[in-house]
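dumping this here so i dont lose it again. seq + smiles for magnesium ion
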Amino acid sequence: MRVVVIPCFNEGARLDDRALLAFAVDDVHLLLVDDGSGDDTLARLQALAALAPTHIEVLALPRNQGKAEAVRRGLLQALEIGADVVAYLDADLSTPTTEMTRLLDVLVAQPAVEVVLGARVALLGRQLERSQLRHYLGRIFASAAATGLGVAVYDTQCGAKAFRVTPSLRRALARPFTSRWAFDVELLGRLLHTVPVDAFEEVPLLQWRDVKGGSLRPWSMARAGLDVLVIGARHRLKLDR
Ligand SMILES: Nc1nc2c(ncn2[C@@H]2O[C@H](COP(=O)(O)OP(=O)(O)OP(=O)(O)O)[C@@H](O)[C@H]2O)c(=O)[nH]1
Ligand SMILES: [Mg+2]
């Protein structure tokens, strides 16, 4: 079973019920995590789960804890219900579900791969719609992350990642992340202590778009930038095991 965790915080206006329902078929299950939203997100998620009770489950966190903890709690629950592949995906579907499917399929097609990361690389023939400013900020962030982790990762912040369920993954999720927004880097760092670098695969996305209405503020971005430096230093000193 493949379980895709979708963290949702005040997503009432952005949720695409139809796309999510169409995605939750066959062995793809959705675990929708309400991160203590103040709007109608939880009711919307519950209504969606009622339409496909065998394929969609809701985890309601009683108060807002941030994307890092919402994803971690979702992934832990996915492990508990017996998933052999888990993933996470942003609720705004900036990465469309068809692209998430492609990431999941890599784990089926390539048994040696354990971690699949969506990478936003603008190439001719691909549909990548991203503001210039965000692109360049993202490049600086990813370069800092790659230096800190000591591996040539191109895009750490794409909200679409998939993992084979292994003891290494369980261990990497056992403790809360220290960073609210740079947690993807923290997770990769924890995994890199035991998973060989060739078991990581970045997959350039064919489609990705900036979806307005998110709540990531400039202050959070600056904080994430600071966090990535600390995470890199801790990783090199092996303090993040
Ligand atoms: N902002 C925010 N998002 C959260 C939180 N908890 C879970 N999320 C989810 O994390 C995902 C990414 O959030 P976004 O606000 O879209 O962040 P972003 O795409 O980096 O930034 P935007 O360009 O503003 O959309 C979404 O699925 C959110 O619902 C939280 O506490 N704050
Ligand atoms: Mg977004």
